[in-house]
Amino acid sequence: MLTEDCESSVWFFFCGPTRRMRFPLSATLFIPAVVGASAVLLVASSGAIQAGQFPQMLLFILLSVVASYLHAHDPAGGVVSPTPALFYAAIYIFNPITAFFVVSMGYAIGNTLPRTWVTWRACFNGAQMGLSALLGSLVFRSLGGNPAALSFAPQILPSLLGPLTHQVANNFFIGFLISRMRGASFVRTWISFVQEFLWTNLLSIPTAVLIAILYTRVHHAFVLIFLFSLPFQRWAVKLYLDERTSYTRIIESLVRACELSLPGTRGHARRVADLSVAIGRQLGLIERDVESLEYAALLHDIGMIGLDEELHSGGAHSSPQRLIDAHTKLGAEIVSELPRRELPEMILHHHTAFRSGRGEVPGSAKSTLIGARIIALVEEVDSRLHGLFPYSQPEQSAAVLKFVASGRGSLFDPEVVDAFSVVYATGAGGRPKADTVESRPLQAGGATDEA
User: Has domain 262-436 been given CATH number 1.10.3210.10?
Assistant: First the structure.
Protein backbone atom coordinates (compact mmCIF):
# COMPACT_ATOMS: atom_id res chain seq x y z
CA MET A 1 0.00 0.00 0.00
CA LEU A 2 1.35 3.39 -0.93
CA THR A 3 0.04 6.78 0.19
CA GLU A 4 1.21 10.22 -0.82
CA ASP A 5 0.71 13.55 0.91
CA CYS A 6 0.18 16.18 -1.81
CA GLU A 7 0.08 19.11 0.58
CA SER A 8 2.04 19.81 3.74
CA SER A 9 -0.70 20.36 6.29
CA VAL A 10 1.52 22.36 8.63
CA TRP A 11 2.72 24.70 5.87
CA PHE A 12 -0.85 25.24 4.71
CA PHE A 13 -1.79 25.77 8.38
CA PHE A 14 0.55 28.74 8.77
CA CYS A 15 0.99 30.13 5.28
CA GLY A 16 -2.06 29.18 3.22
CA PRO A 17 -2.22 27.37 -0.15
CA THR A 18 1.05 26.36 -1.76
CA ARG A 19 2.24 24.43 -4.75
CA ARG A 20 1.85 20.68 -5.11
CA MET A 21 4.47 18.88 -3.05
CA ARG A 22 7.85 18.07 -4.56
CA PHE A 23 9.70 14.97 -3.46
CA PRO A 24 12.60 15.55 -1.05
CA LEU A 25 16.00 14.50 -2.39
CA SER A 26 16.18 11.33 -0.26
CA ALA A 27 12.86 10.07 -1.67
CA THR A 28 13.86 11.09 -5.20
CA LEU A 29 17.04 9.02 -4.92
CA PHE A 30 15.40 6.10 -3.13
CA ILE A 31 12.85 5.37 -5.88
CA PRO A 32 15.33 4.88 -8.78
CA ALA A 33 17.71 3.06 -6.41
CA VAL A 34 15.09 0.41 -5.62
CA VAL A 35 13.98 0.12 -9.26
CA GLY A 36 17.58 0.00 -10.51
CA ALA A 37 18.65 -2.60 -7.95
CA SER A 38 15.70 -4.78 -8.96
CA ALA A 39 16.58 -4.51 -12.65
CA VAL A 40 20.26 -5.37 -12.06
CA LEU A 41 19.34 -8.31 -9.83
CA LEU A 42 16.89 -9.66 -12.38
CA VAL A 43 19.40 -9.47 -15.25
CA ALA A 44 22.24 -10.95 -13.19
CA SER A 45 20.13 -13.84 -11.90
CA SER A 46 17.98 -14.54 -14.93
CA GLY A 47 19.70 -17.90 -15.36
CA ALA A 48 17.94 -19.14 -12.22
CA ILE A 49 14.54 -18.75 -13.89
CA GLN A 50 13.47 -22.16 -15.15
CA ALA A 51 12.31 -22.01 -18.76
CA GLY A 52 10.06 -25.01 -18.24
CA GLN A 53 7.98 -22.99 -15.78
CA PHE A 54 7.13 -20.19 -18.22
CA PRO A 55 3.47 -21.27 -18.65
CA GLN A 56 2.96 -21.39 -14.87
CA MET A 57 4.82 -18.11 -14.44
CA LEU A 58 2.68 -16.46 -17.08
CA LEU A 59 -0.45 -17.71 -15.30
CA PHE A 60 0.73 -16.22 -11.98
CA ILE A 61 1.62 -12.93 -13.66
CA LEU A 62 -1.82 -12.70 -15.25
CA LEU A 63 -3.50 -13.47 -11.92
CA SER A 64 -1.32 -10.83 -10.21
CA VAL A 65 -2.29 -8.27 -12.84
CA VAL A 66 -5.98 -8.95 -12.32
CA ALA A 67 -5.70 -8.93 -8.51
CA SER A 68 -3.65 -5.69 -8.53
CA TYR A 69 -6.09 -4.03 -10.89
CA LEU A 70 -9.13 -5.00 -8.81
CA HIS A 71 -8.14 -2.75 -5.95
CA ALA A 72 -10.33 -0.52 -3.82
CA HIS A 73 -9.38 2.94 -2.59
CA ASP A 74 -8.98 3.32 1.15
CA PRO A 75 -10.40 6.64 2.47
CA ALA A 76 -7.42 6.80 4.81
CA GLY A 77 -5.07 6.71 1.83
CA GLY A 78 -3.65 4.15 -0.56
CA VAL A 79 -5.40 1.12 -1.96
CA VAL A 80 -6.42 -2.33 -0.74
CA SER A 81 -6.14 -5.32 -3.08
CA PRO A 82 -6.48 -9.12 -2.70
CA THR A 83 -2.87 -9.79 -3.77
CA PRO A 84 -1.22 -11.06 -0.53
CA ALA A 85 -2.54 -14.65 -0.80
CA LEU A 86 -1.27 -14.96 -4.38
CA PHE A 87 2.14 -13.46 -3.54
CA TYR A 88 2.56 -15.78 -0.57
CA ALA A 89 1.66 -18.74 -2.81
CA ALA A 90 4.38 -17.61 -5.24
CA ILE A 91 6.86 -17.56 -2.34
CA TYR A 92 5.95 -21.17 -1.56
CA ILE A 93 5.91 -22.48 -5.13
CA PHE A 94 8.80 -20.81 -6.99
CA ASN A 95 12.49 -20.38 -6.30
CA PRO A 96 13.45 -16.90 -5.02
CA ILE A 97 14.39 -15.36 -8.39
CA THR A 98 11.33 -16.77 -10.14
CA ALA A 99 9.09 -15.53 -7.32
CA PHE A 100 10.73 -12.12 -7.63
CA PHE A 101 10.10 -12.01 -11.38
CA VAL A 102 6.49 -13.21 -11.17
CA VAL A 103 5.47 -10.85 -8.35
CA SER A 104 7.28 -7.74 -9.62
CA MET A 105 6.05 -8.09 -13.20
CA GLY A 106 2.45 -8.88 -12.22
CA TYR A 107 2.21 -6.10 -9.66
CA ALA A 108 3.87 -3.47 -11.86
CA ILE A 109 1.66 -4.24 -14.84
CA GLY A 110 -1.43 -4.31 -12.63
CA ASN A 111 -0.50 -0.88 -11.27
CA THR A 112 -0.18 0.63 -14.74
CA LEU A 113 -3.71 -0.29 -15.86
CA PRO A 114 -5.72 2.22 -13.78
CA ARG A 115 -5.36 5.77 -15.12
CA THR A 116 -4.73 7.07 -11.59
CA TRP A 117 -1.37 5.26 -11.36
CA VAL A 118 1.72 7.04 -12.67
CA THR A 119 4.84 5.45 -14.12
CA TRP A 120 7.23 5.96 -11.20
CA ARG A 121 4.72 4.55 -8.75
CA ALA A 122 4.02 1.45 -10.84
CA CYS A 123 7.76 0.77 -11.29
CA PHE A 124 8.56 1.36 -7.63
CA ASN A 125 5.66 -0.74 -6.36
CA GLY A 126 6.54 -3.61 -8.69
CA ALA A 127 10.22 -3.47 -7.74
CA GLN A 128 9.73 -3.29 -3.98
CA MET A 129 7.02 -5.96 -3.99
CA GLY A 130 9.27 -8.26 -6.04
CA LEU A 131 12.23 -7.71 -3.70
CA SER A 132 9.97 -8.44 -0.73
CA ALA A 133 8.86 -11.71 -2.38
CA LEU A 134 12.50 -12.58 -3.06
CA LEU A 135 13.41 -12.15 0.60
CA GLY A 136 10.35 -14.09 1.71
CA SER A 137 11.15 -16.96 -0.63
CA LEU A 138 14.79 -17.03 0.54
CA VAL A 139 13.66 -17.37 4.16
CA PHE A 140 11.07 -20.01 3.24
CA ARG A 141 13.61 -22.11 1.32
CA SER A 142 16.42 -21.69 3.85
CA LEU A 143 14.17 -23.07 6.60
CA GLY A 144 13.36 -26.15 4.54
CA GLY A 145 10.02 -25.00 3.19
CA ASN A 146 8.50 -27.28 0.54
CA PRO A 147 4.76 -27.32 -0.27
CA ALA A 148 5.11 -30.81 -1.77
CA ALA A 149 6.46 -32.29 1.48
CA LEU A 150 4.21 -34.96 2.99
CA SER A 151 5.06 -34.10 6.59
CA PHE A 152 3.10 -31.01 7.66
CA ALA A 153 4.66 -30.09 11.03
CA PRO A 154 8.14 -29.11 9.71
CA GLN A 155 6.46 -26.76 7.21
CA ILE A 156 4.66 -24.62 9.80
CA LEU A 157 7.61 -22.38 10.71
CA PRO A 158 8.84 -21.65 7.15
CA SER A 159 5.23 -21.15 5.98
CA LEU A 160 4.82 -18.44 8.62
CA LEU A 161 8.23 -16.77 8.43
CA GLY A 162 8.32 -16.55 4.62
CA PRO A 163 5.20 -14.32 4.38
CA LEU A 164 6.24 -12.50 7.56
CA THR A 165 9.56 -11.57 5.95
CA HIS A 166 7.73 -10.42 2.81
CA GLN A 167 5.39 -8.24 4.87
CA VAL A 168 8.12 -6.64 6.98
CA ALA A 169 10.25 -5.96 3.87
CA ASN A 170 7.28 -4.44 2.03
CA ASN A 171 6.58 -2.20 5.04
CA PHE A 172 10.27 -1.25 5.10
CA PHE A 173 10.27 0.03 1.51
CA ILE A 174 6.98 1.89 1.84
CA GLY A 175 7.78 3.13 5.34
CA PHE A 176 11.10 4.61 4.26
CA LEU A 177 9.59 6.39 1.26
CA ILE A 178 6.66 7.83 3.19
CA SER A 179 8.84 8.87 6.15
CA ARG A 180 11.06 10.84 3.74
CA MET A 181 8.06 12.46 2.07
CA ARG A 182 6.51 13.42 5.41
CA GLY A 183 9.73 14.35 7.17
CA ALA A 184 8.87 11.83 9.89
CA SER A 185 10.90 9.24 11.81
CA PHE A 186 11.64 6.23 9.59
CA VAL A 187 11.72 3.72 12.45
CA ARG A 188 8.42 4.92 13.86
CA THR A 189 6.79 4.96 10.43
CA TRP A 190 8.06 1.46 9.66
CA ILE A 191 6.86 0.07 12.97
CA SER A 192 3.45 1.72 12.56
CA PHE A 193 3.02 0.10 9.13
CA VAL A 194 4.00 -3.31 10.52
CA GLN A 195 1.55 -2.95 13.39
CA GLU A 196 -1.24 -1.72 11.14
CA PHE A 197 -1.08 -4.23 8.27
CA LEU A 198 0.76 -7.29 9.57
CA TRP A 199 -2.04 -9.37 11.03
CA THR A 200 -4.65 -8.59 8.39
CA ASN A 201 -2.27 -9.63 5.61
CA LEU A 202 -1.04 -12.73 7.44
CA LEU A 203 -4.64 -13.93 7.54
CA SER A 204 -4.06 -14.70 3.85
CA ILE A 205 -1.56 -17.45 4.74
CA PRO A 206 -4.11 -20.32 4.96
CA THR A 207 -5.41 -19.46 1.47
CA ALA A 208 -1.85 -19.27 0.13
CA VAL A 209 -0.95 -22.64 1.69
CA LEU A 210 -4.04 -24.26 0.17
CA ILE A 211 -3.22 -22.86 -3.28
CA ALA A 212 0.40 -24.06 -3.02
CA ILE A 213 -0.57 -27.57 -1.90
CA LEU A 214 -3.16 -28.00 -4.66
CA TYR A 215 -0.73 -26.54 -7.19
CA THR A 216 2.17 -28.86 -6.33
CA ARG A 217 0.32 -32.03 -5.38
CA VAL A 218 -2.72 -32.07 -7.67
CA HIS A 219 -2.47 -29.82 -10.75
CA HIS A 220 -1.20 -26.38 -11.70
CA ALA A 221 -4.66 -25.37 -12.88
CA PHE A 222 -5.88 -25.32 -9.26
CA VAL A 223 -4.31 -21.89 -8.89
CA LEU A 224 -7.35 -20.64 -10.83
CA ILE A 225 -9.33 -21.13 -7.62
CA PHE A 226 -7.88 -17.77 -6.64
CA LEU A 227 -9.29 -16.16 -9.78
CA PHE A 228 -12.82 -17.34 -9.03
CA SER A 229 -12.62 -15.88 -5.52
CA LEU A 230 -11.45 -12.44 -6.65
CA PRO A 231 -14.86 -10.82 -7.23
CA PHE A 232 -16.03 -11.90 -3.77
CA GLN A 233 -12.84 -10.65 -2.12
CA ARG A 234 -13.12 -7.27 -3.83
CA TRP A 235 -16.79 -7.03 -2.90
CA ALA A 236 -15.96 -7.67 0.77
CA VAL A 237 -13.18 -5.06 0.71
CA LYS A 238 -15.40 -2.45 -0.94
CA LEU A 239 -18.18 -3.15 1.55
CA TYR A 240 -15.79 -2.46 4.41
CA LEU A 241 -14.33 0.65 2.79
CA ASP A 242 -17.77 2.00 1.84
CA GLU A 243 -18.76 1.73 5.48
CA ARG A 244 -15.71 3.78 6.45
CA THR A 245 -16.54 6.34 3.77
CA SER A 246 -20.08 6.70 5.11
CA TYR A 247 -18.67 7.11 8.62
CA THR A 248 -16.38 9.89 7.40
CA ARG A 249 -19.25 11.67 5.65
CA ILE A 250 -21.32 11.63 8.84
CA ILE A 251 -18.47 13.27 10.73
CA GLU A 252 -17.96 15.89 8.02
CA SER A 253 -21.68 16.70 8.10
CA LEU A 254 -21.50 17.28 11.85
CA VAL A 255 -18.49 19.54 11.36
CA ARG A 256 -20.29 21.59 8.70
CA ALA A 257 -23.30 21.96 11.00
CA CYS A 258 -21.02 23.25 13.75
CA GLU A 259 -19.30 25.74 11.42
CA LEU A 260 -22.64 27.05 10.11
CA SER A 261 -23.78 27.80 13.64
CA LEU A 262 -20.51 29.59 14.43
CA PRO A 263 -19.58 32.04 11.63
CA GLY A 264 -15.85 32.73 11.41
CA THR A 265 -14.79 29.20 12.35
CA ARG A 266 -14.94 27.77 8.85
CA GLY A 267 -11.87 25.64 8.19
CA HIS A 268 -10.82 25.54 11.86
CA ALA A 269 -11.73 21.88 12.38
CA ARG A 270 -10.02 20.74 9.16
CA ARG A 271 -6.85 22.72 9.92
CA VAL A 272 -6.68 21.25 13.41
CA ALA A 273 -7.28 17.76 12.03
CA ASP A 274 -4.62 18.03 9.32
CA LEU A 275 -1.89 19.27 11.62
CA SER A 276 -2.89 16.80 14.36
CA VAL A 277 -2.52 13.95 11.87
CA ALA A 278 0.94 15.19 10.84
CA ILE A 279 2.04 15.32 14.50
CA GLY A 280 0.52 11.91 15.21
CA ARG A 281 2.46 10.36 12.36
CA GLN A 282 5.64 12.09 13.50
CA LEU A 283 5.09 10.45 16.90
CA GLY A 284 4.72 7.06 15.21
CA LEU A 285 1.06 6.38 15.95
CA ILE A 286 -0.36 3.48 13.96
CA GLU A 287 -2.78 4.36 11.18
CA ARG A 288 -5.91 3.36 13.12
CA ASP A 289 -4.92 5.69 15.97
CA VAL A 290 -4.12 8.42 13.44
CA GLU A 291 -7.56 7.94 11.92
CA SER A 292 -9.23 8.23 15.34
CA LEU A 293 -7.12 11.31 16.04
CA GLU A 294 -8.35 12.89 12.81
CA TYR A 295 -11.99 12.16 13.68
CA ALA A 296 -11.60 13.56 17.20
CA ALA A 297 -9.84 16.67 15.89
CA LEU A 298 -12.62 17.28 13.38
CA LEU A 299 -15.23 16.95 16.13
CA HIS A 300 -13.36 18.59 19.00
CA ASP A 301 -15.63 21.70 18.98
CA ILE A 302 -18.90 19.92 18.19
CA GLY A 303 -20.10 20.80 21.71
CA MET A 304 -20.22 24.47 20.69
CA ILE A 305 -23.45 23.75 18.79
CA GLY A 306 -25.40 23.88 22.03
CA LEU A 307 -23.63 27.01 23.18
CA ASP A 308 -23.82 29.16 20.04
CA GLU A 309 -26.30 31.64 21.51
CA GLU A 310 -23.95 32.43 24.38
CA LEU A 311 -21.06 32.86 21.95
CA HIS A 312 -23.09 35.20 19.75
CA SER A 313 -24.19 37.29 22.72
CA GLY A 314 -20.59 38.16 23.57
CA GLY A 315 -20.91 37.06 27.17
CA ALA A 316 -18.65 34.06 26.61
CA HIS A 317 -15.48 36.16 26.88
CA SER A 318 -16.35 37.13 30.45
CA SER A 319 -16.09 33.49 31.62
CA PRO A 320 -14.15 31.55 28.96
CA GLN A 321 -13.13 28.62 31.20
CA ARG A 322 -16.74 27.80 32.03
CA LEU A 323 -17.61 27.68 28.33
CA ILE A 324 -14.52 25.57 27.55
CA ASP A 325 -15.49 23.04 30.19
CA ALA A 326 -19.10 23.00 29.02
CA HIS A 327 -18.31 22.45 25.34
CA THR A 328 -15.90 19.56 26.01
CA LYS A 329 -18.48 17.74 28.14
CA LEU A 330 -21.29 18.35 25.66
CA GLY A 331 -19.06 17.37 22.73
CA ALA A 332 -18.06 14.11 24.42
CA GLU A 333 -21.72 13.36 25.06
CA ILE A 334 -22.66 14.01 21.41
CA VAL A 335 -19.97 11.72 19.95
CA SER A 336 -20.51 8.98 22.55
CA GLU A 337 -23.06 7.45 20.17
CA LEU A 338 -20.36 6.84 17.56
CA PRO A 339 -18.80 3.34 17.60
CA ARG A 340 -15.27 4.46 18.50
CA ARG A 341 -14.95 4.67 22.28
CA GLU A 342 -11.75 6.73 22.20
CA LEU A 343 -13.41 9.74 20.53
CA PRO A 344 -15.41 10.96 23.56
CA GLU A 345 -12.30 10.63 25.75
CA MET A 346 -10.14 12.70 23.41
CA ILE A 347 -12.79 15.39 23.05
CA LEU A 348 -13.51 15.51 26.79
CA HIS A 349 -9.85 15.95 27.73
CA HIS A 350 -8.50 17.96 24.80
CA HIS A 351 -8.12 21.05 27.01
CA THR A 352 -6.89 19.30 30.16
CA ALA A 353 -5.04 16.10 29.18
CA PHE A 354 -1.64 17.46 30.20
CA ARG A 355 -2.49 20.25 32.63
CA SER A 356 -4.46 18.01 35.02
CA GLY A 357 -2.17 15.85 37.14
CA ARG A 358 0.63 16.18 34.58
CA GLY A 359 -0.93 13.87 32.06
CA GLU A 360 -2.71 10.96 33.71
CA VAL A 361 -6.36 10.64 32.79
CA PRO A 362 -7.75 7.57 34.64
CA GLY A 363 -9.01 4.84 32.32
CA SER A 364 -7.62 6.40 29.15
CA ALA A 365 -5.41 4.39 26.79
CA LYS A 366 -2.01 5.86 25.89
CA SER A 367 -3.07 6.53 22.28
CA THR A 368 -6.22 8.29 23.52
CA LEU A 369 -4.23 10.41 25.96
CA ILE A 370 -1.62 11.43 23.41
CA GLY A 371 -4.41 12.22 20.94
CA ALA A 372 -6.03 14.61 23.41
CA ARG A 373 -2.66 16.28 24.05
CA ILE A 374 -2.04 16.75 20.33
CA ILE A 375 -5.45 18.34 19.78
CA ALA A 376 -4.91 20.59 22.82
CA LEU A 377 -1.75 22.06 21.33
CA VAL A 378 -2.98 22.36 17.76
CA GLU A 379 -6.32 23.92 18.70
CA GLU A 380 -4.54 26.49 20.86
CA VAL A 381 -2.20 27.35 17.99
CA ASP A 382 -4.98 27.68 15.42
CA SER A 383 -7.21 29.70 17.72
CA ARG A 384 -4.41 32.17 18.38
CA LEU A 385 -3.42 32.42 14.72
CA HIS A 386 -6.98 33.08 13.55
CA GLY A 387 -8.36 35.03 16.51
CA LEU A 388 -10.93 32.40 17.44
CA PHE A 389 -12.57 32.00 20.87
CA PRO A 390 -11.35 32.72 23.49
CA TYR A 391 -9.11 35.18 21.57
CA SER A 392 -10.52 38.24 19.87
CA GLN A 393 -7.60 39.15 17.54
CA PRO A 394 -5.22 37.07 15.40
CA GLU A 395 -1.64 36.78 16.64
CA GLN A 396 1.56 36.69 14.61
CA SER A 397 2.98 33.25 13.88
CA ALA A 398 6.30 34.09 15.59
CA ALA A 399 4.43 34.98 18.78
CA VAL A 400 2.42 31.76 18.64
CA LEU A 401 5.54 29.63 18.18
CA LYS A 402 7.16 31.42 21.12
CA PHE A 403 4.07 30.73 23.25
CA VAL A 404 4.19 27.01 22.38
CA ALA A 405 7.87 26.81 23.27
CA SER A 406 7.30 28.58 26.60
CA GLY A 407 4.46 26.17 27.44
CA ARG A 408 6.54 23.03 26.88
CA GLY A 409 6.26 20.92 30.01
CA SER A 410 3.75 23.19 31.72
CA LEU A 411 0.83 23.70 29.34
CA PHE A 412 1.72 21.13 26.68
CA ASP A 413 3.21 17.66 26.55
CA PRO A 414 6.96 18.05 25.78
CA GLU A 415 6.83 15.09 23.36
CA VAL A 416 3.97 16.69 21.42
CA VAL A 417 5.73 20.07 21.35
CA ASP A 418 8.89 18.44 20.02
CA ALA A 419 6.94 16.60 17.31
CA PHE A 420 5.14 19.83 16.38
CA SER A 421 8.49 21.60 16.10
CA VAL A 422 9.90 18.89 13.81
CA VAL A 423 6.82 18.85 11.58
CA TYR A 424 6.76 22.63 11.31
CA ALA A 425 10.51 23.09 10.89
CA THR A 426 10.97 20.43 8.20
CA GLY A 427 7.80 21.22 6.25
CA ALA A 428 7.52 18.87 3.25
CA GLY A 429 8.70 18.54 -0.30
CA GLY A 430 11.67 20.89 0.06
CA ARG A 431 9.68 23.84 1.41
CA PRO A 432 11.60 26.49 3.39
CA LYS A 433 12.38 25.93 7.03
CA ALA A 434 10.29 27.54 9.78
CA ASP A 435 12.85 30.27 10.43
CA THR A 436 12.28 31.69 6.94
CA VAL A 437 8.56 32.20 7.46
CA GLU A 438 7.51 35.83 7.48
CA SER A 439 5.93 36.78 10.78
CA ARG A 440 2.57 38.26 9.97
CA PRO A 441 -1.01 38.12 11.29
CA LEU A 442 -3.10 35.52 9.57
CA GLN A 443 -6.63 36.27 8.44
CA ALA A 444 -9.50 34.67 10.32
CA GLY A 445 -11.76 32.23 8.55
CA GLY A 446 -11.36 29.05 6.54
CA ALA A 447 -9.39 28.11 3.48
CA THR A 448 -10.04 26.04 0.40
CA ASP A 449 -8.60 22.54 0.38
CA GLU A 450 -6.25 21.75 -2.50
CA ALA A 451 -5.56 18.38 -4.08
Answer: yes
